[in-house]
Amino acid sequence: TFIVGENCIKCKYTDCVEVCPVDCFYEGPNFLVIHPDECIDCALCEPECPAEAIFSEDELPDNQQVYLELNAELAEVWPNITEKKDSLPDAEEWDGVKDKLQYLER
Ligand code: SF4
Ligand code: F3S
């Protein structure tokens, strides 16, 4: 599966959802997740993210392993998103900021 990692938080560019052939992205207030049981590992979304927040499970950095569980958990409760929308207003300023997990809204 592919995983949305930390740098999506407070950016949420949503370019990723446009290319997913199985529409397996789910949207929270300031983060998106991928449903691990629905993702078909096509890899199309990974290069589309301007924040480089998407990883294949195998390449998820060691310090972002918590996002495996977060994607699985939140994909069960958040609504599906299939069309691109505006990024969050301060996306450019938040792109690359460290330790954004504390800002995750559920
Ligand atoms: Fe969708 Fe493919 Fe990305 Fe999985 S890897 S979330 S199927 S675009
Ligand atoms: Fe997030 Fe990147 Fe998609 S910032 S919403 S994973 S395009």
Mean residue pLDDT = 98
**Biggest sheet, strands in spatial order?**
1-4
Biggest sheet statistics: 2 strands, antiparallel
Strand proportion, as a percent range, falls in 5-15%
SSE string, helix = H, strand = E?
A: EHEEEHH
**Secondary structure: helix percent:** 10-25%
Provide the structure class. alpha+beta
What shape does the CA trace take?
globular
State the end-to-end distance. Answer: 22 Å
The molecules bound to the chains, other than polymers, are: iron/sulfur cluster, FE3-S4 cluster
Multimerization status: single chain
Which regions have little confidence, pLDDT < 50, spanning 5+ residues? none
Task: Quickly count the helices.
Answer: 3
How many strands?
A: 4
Write a brief caption for the model.
The protein is of the alpha+beta class and 106 residues long.
